[in-house]
Write a structure and sequence with these properties.
The protein is α+β, with helices and mostly antiparallel strands. It has nine helices and five strands. A five-stranded mixed beta sheet has the order 2-1-3-4-5, with helices on both faces.
């Protein structure tokens, strides 16, 4: 049955307008971007099949176009929506008077690092009032590690005239449990940056769930 034949309150677009985007399932949200189905399958059916083939929403959204199963128009629409989301979070951080809510920085860092299939180490550079100056991805590695060089982190902090920094890296395995190496490099960076009067406020490990804060665990 075509979506046109569905009751008004069940069609994805009408449902979104009436109840908000949060009322739609992942397949229904994809249907809004896909626009039309295939012979014998509605757009929602197509969205559901794509999710099953990709193994979930995250791998589908961040797959290369040829591997996603999406057409070029649908893929471009979704990539544009993802980038809008990232830029919204970026502007939210930059326009706030001070970054005082760890949950906000955790959400932003997860949006930037969570989908990489390899490890990336990044920094949020802050001024003396903890307002965001810049975000940078400094080191990239393999699926199970990235080499982090304290000298380079110090150099970038000085280049941005940062007074504080929030560190972050992702675990492509999806498990956000800090390793012994993660704790060790955090302490090395804390001590190196202290020599130039830059404070390390936190280090987030990004996985498939809620990011883990080393500061909250008392490890900084």
């Amino acid at each position: 049955m075509s979506i046109r034949d569905w009751p008004d309150g069940e069609r994805p677009r009408e449902k979104l307008l009436a109840r908000g985007s949060g009322s739609l399932s992942d397949a229904e949200l994809l249907a809004v971007f896909i626009g039309s189905g295939r012979r014998g399958s509605s757009a929602v059916d197509v969205g559901r099949d794509l999710l099953i083939q990709a193994g979930g929403l995250m791998p589908l959204l961040h797959a290369e176009r040829k591997k996603s199963g999406l057409g070029p128009v649908s893929w471009c629409r979704i990539q544009a929506a993802l980038e809008l989301g990232r830029r919204y979070l970026d502007s939210e951080l930059r326009e706030s008077e001070a970054l005082t809510d760890p949950a906000s920085s955790a959400r932003y860092l997860k949006s930037r690092l969570g989908a990489y299939p390899y490890e990336v180490f990044a920094c949020l550079f802050l001024d003396n009032r903890h307002r965001v100056i810049a975000f940078e991805e400094l080191f990239r590695g393999t699926i199970d590690g990235a080499s982090v060089h304290p000298r380079e982190v110090v150099r970038h902090c000085l280049a941005h005239n940062a007074a504080a920094v929030i560190l972050a890296h992702n675990h492509p395995s999806g498990i956000a449990e800090p390793s012994a190496a993660d704790r060790a490099i955090t302490l090395r960076l804390r001590d190196a940056l202290a020599l130039v009067d830059v404070r390390v406020l936190d280090h987030f490990v990004i996985g498939s769930g809620t990011p883990t804060s080393l500061a909250r665990r008392g490890w900084i």
